[in-house]
UniProtKB/TrEMBL annotation:
It comes from Ceratopteris richardii (Triangle waterfern). Keywords: Signal. This is Strictosidine synthase conserved region domain-containing protein. Residues 1-30 form the signal peptide. GO terms for cellular component: endoplasmic reticulum.
Length: 330
């Protein structure tokens, strides 16, 4: 075969592959409802770990793997919008090289809480609070240092202002005083010991965490694919009776009986309990675009919105979109 013929064949194969990939991506993207998706150009960095709906200001707050916090206005069907920086990435201590992971808005205290960590070397975990009115830092509290590997992953807050942060590597929960002046390890070592079901994610333990208004915590174990119910004093840690597969990352309480769980590339699941979270089951699922990676969920006016870690396109844009759930057949 002549060289020219080989070149022509190669060009045709590449064209066919490109068309196939484009068709696949379009079919995956069609899973995000067009009437409520928000495409936006990230201002700094490429990866977004968490999105939280800020109803008071009509925007989503997003955390940056590269460090910092941004704001995305809610304007579906208006074309891509631009993210605005609220907290910049810093190259100065104590923030140098740290990622911003979980976010939680604390409306009664007009603040935003952030789980912050050394994502690469796992030599530092911390929690920070910012005034949502002017974005001044209220406090920064170091939770763990180079003495052991740790990863502050997600954060929630109870009605008294106590803050709870998950350690995705240490399988523990830190409880932080409302003013950020001190902290304790809430749970005993080994309280969340489970056999990992996902071998390649065995390092990932506790992940998403949510405060329940009845006075306890719900937390997901990623590699164990299970949920736990934890008392606010840490004395009771109960594994919730559950059937199904979660691959859980970020979680959000939709109602006292419903919990939305982001499942990375496996989609989002709606988990329901009728016995105050002694047991639960999956009632609805949402098949997200696999190439996007769903890392967190938040609730806006009763609807669940999904944050996607990875964007796409040229110019590059990120996306937040409503979850289009379908019931699980009995």
């Amino acid at each position: 075969m002549a060289i020219t013929d080989c070149c022509k064949l190669t060009a045709v194969v590449c064209l066919v592959l490109a068309l196939a990939v484009t068709a696949l991506l379009r079919s995956q993207e069609a899973r995000i409802p067009s009437d409520s998706r928000i495409d936006y150009f990230p201002e700094k960095g490429w990866l977004r770990e968490t999105a939280q709906w800020d109803g008071e200001h009509g925007r989503f707050l997003v955390s940056r793997i590269e460090g910092g916090i941004g704001a995305v206005p809610y304007s579906p069907q208006s074309g891509p919008v631009r993210e605005h920086t609220l907290v910049s990435r810093s190259i100065e201590p104590p923030f140098a090289g740290l990622s911003t992971n979980g976010l939680k808005i604390d409306p009664p205290r007009h603040r935003v809480l952030a789980a912050i960590a050394d994502l690469v070397n796992n030599k530092c975990s911390a929690v920070a609070a910012y005034d949502i009115r002017n974005w001044e830092q209220i406090f920064f509290l170091k939770l763990a240092g180079p003495e052991r590997a740790s990863l502050a992953d997600d954060v929630t807050v109870d009605e008294e202002g106590n803050i709870y942060v998950t350690d995705a590597l240490g399988a523990l929960i830190w409880k932080v005083a409302p003013d950020g002046s001190s902290f304790d390890v809430l749970t005993e070592r080994g309280a969340f010991a489970v056999v990992p079901k996902i071998g390649y994610l065995s390092f990932a333990t506790l992940n998403g965490i949510s405060y329940h208004p009845e006075g306890f915590l719900l937390v997901v174990h990623t590699s164990g694919e299970c949920l736990f119910k934890v008392s606010l004093d840490g004395q009771s840690v109960e594994r919730i009776e559950f059937e199904g597969s979660l691959y859980g990352d970020g979680i959000a309480l939709v109602s006292p009986t419903q919990l939305a769980v982001a499942g990375l590339w496996t989609g989002v699941k709606l988990v329901e309990s009728s016995d105050m979270w002694v047991s639960a089951n999956i009632t609805h699922v949402y098949a997200t675009p696999r190439h996007r990676v769903a890392t967190s969920v938040t609730v806006k006016d009763g609807d669940v919105f999904v944050n996607y870690l990875i964007g796409q396109g040229y110019p590059y844009y990120s996306t937040i979109g409503r979850a289009a759930f379908t019931p699980v057949s009995s």
